[in-house]
Amino acid sequence: MFAESDPLYALVGEVSTHKVMDGNGKLDDDLLMKYLDMLMIQKAAKKPKDWVEVWAAMDIPVTNQVVVLEPILRFGLEHAPESLGKIAAELLIGHRIKSKSLQEAVQGACKDEGTDKGFLRETFFLIFPKGPQSEWGWSRVGWSWQEWWKIVEGCYSGLDSAKAFDELCWLLDKIEAEGGKPLVEQTQVWNETRLEKVKSLLCKFGSVEDENDLSACLDATLN
Asked: For the chain, what percentages of helix, strand and coil (3-state, to nearest 5) are there?
């Protein structure tokens, strides 16, 4: 009855009773795939925030987050890449997964194809530190540009360099556009040191020798 009237409620109950991971840290792959089919293909999760409740019901130890998160990302990349960015952001914002766990899971889930199918750029946009020009962002104690950049750099470094370059360009363009002024003028979030880190990584990904050539590749203003 509940499965028909409220599929998510029924699934959360099942997930909390029949765990995907036992007390010894062993993952039941078949059971996880069953739940993911219900969540992503049968659409038991109507909105990304529903995943916060599902993850809580799974009761995954912090030390084993990657073991569960990596197959979730693999499944999502295959079946629902369009919603994966928001799901990852909600799990981070809802304090269900650690940023380091996401980074390690991304490196595992994306290593074969070298692409994240664009989901990371949405995640990184949504968790960008909230500020005067980033009213859409994430604000919590200890969350800073440095922490944000650490996960951006770590995740994109696991992708194909050319794809990572394109994705990072898109992300910076989006942040600038939404901020309403050039990045170099968003001085309470961006400064010369941070912009240099961005330019350095872009040059590395794009095999660009002269930083001045970057202006031809993206709309965001880094100089």
From this structure: 65, 0, 35
